[in-house]
Amino acid sequence: MLETRQLFHEVPTAEGRLAILKGIDLNITKGESVAIVGASGSGKSTLLGMIAGLDCPSAGQIFIDKTEISALNEELRAEIRQRYVAFVFQNFQLLNGLNAAENVALPLEVRGDRDSHAKAIRYLNRVGLSERSKHSPQQLSGGEQQRVAIARAFACEAPIIFADEPTGNLDAETGALIADLLFELNREHATTLVLVTHSSELAERCDRTLKMHAGKFI
Amino acid sequence: MFRLVVKLFGKMLRSKSFTLLLISLAVATASITAISIFVERINNTLYSEAAEFIAADAKVQGSMPAPQEWYQIAKKNELDVAQTTQFSAMIFAQNAMQLARIKAVSTNYPLRGSLQIRDAANQEVRIIGSGPTVGKLWLAPRLFTALNIRPGTKVKVGDAEFIAEKIIVQEPDSVGSTFAMAPRAMIHIDDVDATGAIQLGSRVNHDFMLAGDPQAIDAAKTQIYPQLGEHYRWVSPEEGSAAFSSALDRAKRFLLLAGSLSVLLASVAIALAAHHFAAHQQTQVALLKTFGIGPKGIQQFYLLLLILTGCTGFIFGSTGGWLLHQVIVALLADLFPQDLASAGTKPYIIGAITCSVTLFAFASPPLLTLKSIAPAQILRQEKNKGNAILISVVCGVLATALLIGFYSLDIYITAILFGAMLLCVAASALTAKILLKLTKTIQNKLRGYWRVGLSNLQRQKQFTALQIFVFASVVLLVAVLSQLRTSLVEQWQPQMAETPNHFVFNIFHDELALIQNTFSEAEVNVSEYYPMSRGRVVKINGQSLKERIIPDMQRSDYERELNLTWSETLGKDNRIDAGAWWPDDRNSQLSVSAEYNYALGLGLKLGDTITFSVAGREFSAELKSIRRVKWDSMNPNFYMIFDRPIADNFAANWITSFYLPSSEKAFLNKLLADHPTISLIELDQTIAAVQEILNHVTMAIEFILMLVLGASILVMLTSIQATVSERRRESALLRSFGANRSFVQQVLIVEFASIGLLAGIFASAGAEACLYFVQVKLFEFEPHIHWQIWAIAPALTTVLVAAIGYAATVGVTHETPLHVLRTQTDET
Ligand SMILES: Nc1ncnc2c1ncn2[C@@H]1O[C@H](COP(=O)(O)OP(=O)(O)OP(=O)(O)O)[C@@H](O)[C@H]1O
Ligand SMILES: [Mg+2]
Fold first, then answer.
1. Which of B302, B566, B606, B648 is within CB 3.0–4.6 Å of B367 for a Cys-Cys bond?
2. Are B189 and B306 members of one domain?
3. Whose CA is nearest to atom 13 of ligand 1?
4. Does A98 sit within 8 Å of B287, measured CB to CB?
5. Is the distance from the beta carbon of residue A16 to the nearest atom of ligand 1 less than 6 Å?
6. Does residue B90 fall inside a structural domain?
7. Of all protein residues, whose CA lies closest to atom 24 belonging to ligand 1?
8. Are B704 and B648 within one domain?
9. By mean pLDDT, which of A193-202, B72-81, B117-126, B739-748 is the weakest?
10. SS3 string of B707-725?
11. ipTM of the prediction
């Protein structure tokens, strides 16, 4: 389902080029759940974005469902994302102009889903925010915002969910609830799950844990 | 996609930056539409008022009656036709007789304007739309006195008998060319033959007058013009009189300029709002991309959004513009003619074009470059810097030049404004580089809010440069416009008081001393006396005019007879543009000085040998100087002035002009009684009418200046508003670090005041450059340094920008930092 070969990534900075990913080989099969862990700044978020097709590596190949997305142009990569990818961002990225339900419905609108609103409400219910669907992100707490972001990813009903610290801002109880939900989807629809987390509990529930250090798996 | 756009459009209306974009677009469109409607209506009204000066929309003056063919042309073009014939004849009363200029008019004369008459000396003035019927004679009041008759008396004109019926108070086309004699008596054209006054060789003028649709007039003009030859001349309302047309021309130019400037202001407002809006769209774009929309989709999305915005902006803008202009008209109702001409659809088309062009030129670069934002950008909070500002400045400057060109249809205006804009852009860009570096050095030596305030400018170099550019151009435009207004109004002021309003000519040399005596006895203020001969230019450097001028529409203007004079001294209202006035040691070669526009039209250069024909005699003179002439001084002025007599002094006719208040009109009777052979033109009514038009124009100019001023304050507000959210976040952060409220406020003041100061300095420089070109080249004023601008603009801009900026952002300091930071994560 998801494969990388010798993934390298460098960015230009004031002190020259900074290598963030230094040769990542990865193979994730359909329905598998994988946790990526590692110290802050080790390159987890960068890798996650890369394999989700949000960015292009400096070198190496990325395959999603046998398509080499690293060789595609932005237009075609967008199509792949639409078909395969749902993403939970570390910093949520909710739009302030829209309320919770509208935020959740937005990717559905993009996909041309006529049923977007009902679906959005349904997924908000599942993350326990049915009361808050009309609230704007500014009116929600950090944890609530995170749950809206998760509901948005779920609503996409995409084959692969990428989640960057999905429970980072949540108390243990709510965190466990969200994790339940993630794995439920993983089981029900054979959704592939790729998580970045600092929580060992969450990592343990995954089929596999990959440990990163300074841009490499160890 | 469309569904999504419409849905998000509704949401965006709630976001501040988008609302700002929409409002600036609507305000821009509204002010342009309002100015256009207003200008158009004033313009149309001025045109129809000008038409009254020649009593028609156009006419052909000739020494022979118009050929029958022209009547057919007029008929084909569905034009109304009238004709007049003017000649001199003796009027005989019981025991007096008087030579008068008779104007015979057809039944539908005048085609434009109306006649003012009295039925008797003690009766009210009546306004009527047609001249005397067959057998009736209407006379100027002075003729009644001179002939010692009253309305109703029988008199004879030449061989025919008439009833002196009415007193003519005013006729629309009493002006004509300045040196044609004003008619004083009017009969019906069918009576001309009966008078027997027109003999072979008598000087007769025939006017063939046309009125109707402007397009039809143009069509008729193109057909008739080639046939004019030597005997006819085409006269349009603008040419009705030199003074009038130059005033009208300046007014039009000013209104066009003001219109163009409002386009500039509009563009600036839109550019700012769009840039701000685009900056806040980056998160949304990155997010939409992670949802799987490709660059093309993003492009389409924003294109649709732009179109939707444009339509909305236009609907609000044109409605607003119409309302705005209604308010103006209502406010100034008693100052404008009751029946202000309608504006037609042109202003709305201008509004629509301006709306779409500015929107696409200024808003699309930042918005349509959003497509290249990497979706990965969502992972980090970096902002895409890109070169959207550069693109939109380049794009915007070009588009504005295009718009101004389209709007004013004047290459000169366009070039000047375009140059001024470029100057501002260059200066601002340079500032971004140099001055900001300088502030960096200064800033390192500073403490506290000075340091933070100046470093804020540094941090957002591009935006600061943009803002300086915006303020500089706004102040520049306002400075240029208000200076121009002052010059224009001052220019017209001298026409108010004591401007000569009568011309006397045909003064024979031996009568000159007597006349001078009469004037000084009556204490009448007389301008110079000039000898005058009529003649024409026949050759230039041995080349005939026919070969020299392409046979276009202008030639007949140069082939016709001119009034020539000679003088030792240069008139006060003349200014040497090239060459020099007569040196003291003159050589034997006859020298001549030509008027600027005349020389331009004939392509004359200093040193050219010009051959004249005067009274059948040909002689040549060398062109020694080219003069600019203030025709509206109402002094006698000439296209050609020689350095010595070209005819025997005793054979010359002398001309002068003088001022006479209406209360002393009786003096004219004495003058004419003492010197029956002189000719007199009364221009007082014309001057009063010109004055009234100038008053309207001044009003219009002042009003438009006010509109532009309002628009510019709006631009300033928009520009500062665009930074409010940024500053809210900044000052909240500063306060969360422990800065107190007054520190934050002082940071804001330092920041805005420095922007204002820089902008004010650039604006002064730009305005000076701009004014030089506009005033000297466009309006033909004397060039001078506008020290007032240098004194006022930088100081005023500093205070104003600091005040507006402070007022707009001070609220920031009253919110708690927590609240601000919480609600300011990222605006969409
Ligand atoms: N575009 C970029 N420009 C400069 N540095 C970058 C860029 N992208 C990533 N980095 C650097 O690469 C490193 C890895 O970043 P990344 O966000 O992947 O870390 P992470 O493992 O997710 O950390 P955390 O657990 O704190 O979220 C960091 O040191 C970061 O500063
Ligand atoms: Mg991370």
1. B302
2. no
3. A41
4. no
5. no
6. yes
7. A40
8. no
9. B739-748
10. HHHHHHHHHHHHHHHHHHH
11. 0.83
